[in-house]
Amino acid sequence: MEETEDFVGQGPHPVDDDLFKEPMKKRRRSDRDQRFRAFPSVEQSALKEYEKLESRTRRVLSNTYQKLIHSVFLDDSIPNGVKYLINRLLALIEKPSLDPIYIGLFGSTGAGKSSLINAIIQQAMFLPVSGESICTSCIVQVSSGCCEQYEAKIHLLSDQEWKEELKNLTTLLHRTEELDREEADAWDRDDAVEEAIWKLQMLYGNGAERKNYEELLRAKPKGKIPTSRIITLKAEEAEELSVKLDPYIRTHRRDLDGESAETQIWPLIKHVEVTLPKSEMIPEGVVLVDIPGTGDFNSKRDEMWKKTIDKCSVIWLISDIERVSGGRAHEDLLNESIKACQRGFCRDVALVVTKTDKLHLLEYLRERKVGNQAIQSQREAVLERNEVIKLQRNRILKEKLKRKLPADSKVLEASDLVYTVSAQEYWQQALLTEEETEIPKLRGYIRKRLLDKKRRMVTKYVTEAFGLLLLTDSFNCMENLPNEFLHMSGLRRFVEEKIQLLEKVIDQCFAHIKQPLQEGVRNAKASYRRILGTCLVRSRGNQGFHQTLKAVCLKNGIYASRTLARIDLNEAITQPIYDQIDPVFGGIFRAGKPTGSALLPHVEAFKHSLQEKMMEIGIRSGWKYDSYKKSFLIQEISAILGGLEDYILRKKRRIYESLTTSVQSDLKPCYEEWNHGEGEGKYCHHADPCFIPGGWSLQGACRRQK
Questions:
Q1: Between residues 166 and 540, which one has the greater pLDDT?
Q2: If DSSP codes are grouped into helix, strand and coil, which group holds residue 103?
Q3: Which of 20, 153, 622, 649 has its CA 20 to 30 A from that of 485?
């Protein structure tokens, strides 16, 4: 019931008594023209036509709205139907032109995400480039707008959010008295502990790691923290903003000497939004997101990390040429990207291999296994190696996607799943031409995505407006408003019957997941001890096990560090289940014919049955020559049920993550027991990390989520 109310509250056009609101102002023509600077002339012409059609439609809607408002202005009792129409007009007038397209650049530190963004936006050193002691420390969003200046907004953790992290950091640093000297030394050298110490020293100064939670609450941070928790930076030139922004998003590892006031508040930064003015390289409506590969120790930042991944309609998995051939980090990022296709709005995944200009010629020639043609230069070797990488990784990526996604997924039809780029060569062009660096190819991909989305949006917008205008345009006065009543009882019965049938179909769709779910549960029960042992790898024997496990338990099974691989025990335990259900789950939410397990086609069939019924009622009610009523009501059915489809897709994430969430909830008492010290003496000296009680039921956790 709560979810039903939630959906109703999100309807596209609620009746509002505030009828006389002024519609938002139109964008000036000069501003609109600036939006097309990133496009070639042919694409500019298409976009201008879309923009012109949308603008004319908005103008007609606005004029109609004003006329209708004037016609009812002095009337004290406005019928609900007229209120509905007025609010629908206003909602359409103020509907955004285009929801942003989020393109997530997802990769480990040093993979080349910032360098790639710099090349795409044509600003060589705009974002800091990772080095041995430097890395981008938070999520950074880069977009363009019609502003005159370069602008950055730095969002900080709220006071309550920082208190939560501070409590966890001080708890993590608290050593148990039972540790002997050797264990205590190992504790202090652990990466999780080192990072906690570094954060506290950065914000509060040397010695902060020795203070308890209450003492640090009373301590004054070294840097100035604005009460608004937002820092806004502006500049006339890109280089000027880059210099101002640099200390906030550039992290100098373990070096506190001479830190600026800006760097000192780094632990509080949640994310950064950068807006470029009238970019000729990145069109307005596209947001490039630099996403760190491991998440964050802070709960809110880690939650935002996942939500950012999920709202991306495109994910580029960034891996440099030396790390693309494998390794746990690369596989973890790839799996997370594929999961985004299952639980989020992602429709496209591609592998972007960076730093492809790197090649040791003599070593490559010695190990070369392809082609008989002699290699004459470094450039020829780079181009040949890049083509080989494309063919190999394209095949591997497509095979992995096929195992996880439905066979008719759009991403499997993509001609380019792998790009080989070089940001350095884009600027220098010592070996490769600009086209061969494939930076222009990525820009072309971005433009195509935006153009396609704009076309779909305008088509839907004009169609929706047309049905509404057909009805409102016929209202000459209040007396002529239609007052016929539909056969409500018969229509209600019809809708209720169709809803019952739809509910049965939904059950049938999800019934397909029962068998793979049971198989996955059996696999998970048989392998969870081995999985947990793999998650809690101890690189120095048993050293580090105790403190790593404590960090994991502090966050209910999750530990995300900027330097180490992400640990998520809940997700790892349920991975054997996801391995079984992923193809079926993807099939439930795919588009296609209303057969098999696909859910959305059945919603579409439900919509068509209502529209046909409405046409039948219209004919019986004498609407043969009054087609505006029929067109309006049929279009409203599309609008309402279009909202239902969006609602289903939003809920998809909750459904998909319900297994992990349920497991985490069931294991919370175990995490708390261990974290409060009751499990320390029992487990800190042993290699077996499986502190999960034998009575815990994985299948029960799954059953509750059904």
A1: 166
A2: strand
A3: 20
Cβ count within 10 A of residue 16 = 13
Sequence-distant (≥ 6) Cβ neighbours of residue 307 within 8 angstroms: none
Cβ contacts of residue 453 below 8 Å, gap of 6+?
98, 101, 285
> What average pLDDT does this structure show over 276-289?
87
pLDDT attached to residue 683: 40
- Type and span of the H or E element at 42: helix 41-72
CA nearest 244: which of 222, 261, 268, 229? 261
Are 319 and 552 in contact by the 8 Å Cβ rule? The answer is: no
Q: What would the DSSP string read from start to end of 505-526? A: HHHHHHHTTHHHHHHHHHHHHH
- Which structure tokens are listed for 646? 């969006």
Q: Which residue has the tokens 């501003």?
A: 31
Greater confidence (690 vs 114) lies with: 114
> What span, in angstroms and rounded, lies between the C-alpha atoms of 468 and 483?
17
- Cβ atoms of residues 284 and 146 within 8 Å: yes
Report the mean per-residue pLDDT for the chain: 78
Q: With contact defined as beta carbons under 8 Å apart, do 302 and 169 qualify?
A: no
Higher pLDDT, 677 or 200: 200
Residue, of 56 and 263, whose pLDDT is higher = 56
pLDDT at 316 over 90: yes
